[in-house]
Amino acid sequence: MRNRAVTTMLQQQYRSMTRDPRPLPVFVVGNEAYKKHQAGYSNDDKPALTVQQTNIPALRQRIYSIPAEGKLNEALHLSNVQLPSIVNSFELYCARSHLARKAEIEAILAKPKTSLRNVLNATFERLEADTQPLLISPMAIDEARWDSAARRLCQSWGTLYRANHLQMLKANGFKKGNEKRGVPAVSWNAELIRLNRESVDDYFTNLLGTLIATFEDLKKRLRSVTDDVRVKIRSKSTLHLLCIALLTQQQVTGSSTSWFWSHS
User: Domain count of the chain?
Assistant: First the structure.
């Protein structure tokens, strides 16, 4: 039962990290039992697991099959991707009407320009709107309190370090400690930071949670636009190479595909 739980947990973690739809092969092996089978045993001292139950044979079979699996994937890639691409190339260049479809292709590629610009502009406006109440405004409200606390702290230093106050100022408020004598180091900058560190950490934690949600929404909206273009291109096999040619031409002439992500 524990082995099944560990296997399930590893496979779920692998799927969440890689998005790979294929299940992760997991082998929970019994080394000690397998060694006992190899060394031999008496009838009164049989291993708790059979050879197959140790999972060692299954693991060895998996390792031996990995090279063959790689060759099979290469053959499938040749059959499903490369050969159809070559056939599509011949179909494209043999079609007399492919130049007449240039306007159609340009429309498919140019349409996302406005959509993506609007998506990015809306995201920037949302980021600005979220930053103001979660970070800028709270810091402005607490600024006077922080200033007062910092002023009192500086005044206390004037009294505490009266004998060597000038020396501390020259050293930027830092003084080495002595571990053997139990004397801690002194850092005025660190003490000033501690005055508002907890509050600032809270501000940025709240802002980060909002930013993560904003960027996740941005990814979904960008993917929606680009997926729509990809579907339109793939639905018409004769457009594949023409789209690639047009994108290449834009890069050579300086237009590039940078407009695809431009928000200006």
Answer: 2
Tell me if residue 97 falls in helix, strand or coil. Answer: coil
- Secondary structure letter of residue 78 according to DSSP: I
Hunting for tokens 């910092």 — which residue is that?
150
Q: Which residue range forms the structural domain that includes residue 185?
A: 101-260
Q: Nearest-CA neighbor of 126 among 190, 243, 15, 207?
A: 207
Give pLDDT tens digits for 28-60.
888 888 888 888 887 778 888 888 888 888 888
Same domain, 15 and 72: yes
User: What's the pTM value of the predicted model, to 2 decimals?
Assistant: 0.38
For 187-196, the CB contacts below 8 A with 24+ separation are 188/157, 191/153, 192/150, 192/153, 195/146, 195/149, 195/150, 195/153, 196/142, 196/146, 196/149
Say if residue 254 is in the same domain as residue 124: yes
Q: Cα 115 from chain centroid?
A: 24
pLDDT in tens, 6-26: 888 888 888 888 888 888 888
Give the closest residue to 102 by CA, choosing from 251, 242, 240, 247.
Answer: 242
- The domain boundary residue, chosen from 69, 94, 119: 94
Whole-number Å distance between alpha carbons of 232 and 108:
7
156 & 215 share domain: yes
Let me know: does 47 contact 37? Beta carbons within 8 Å: yes
Q: Which of 94, 119, 153 is the last residue of a domain?
A: 94
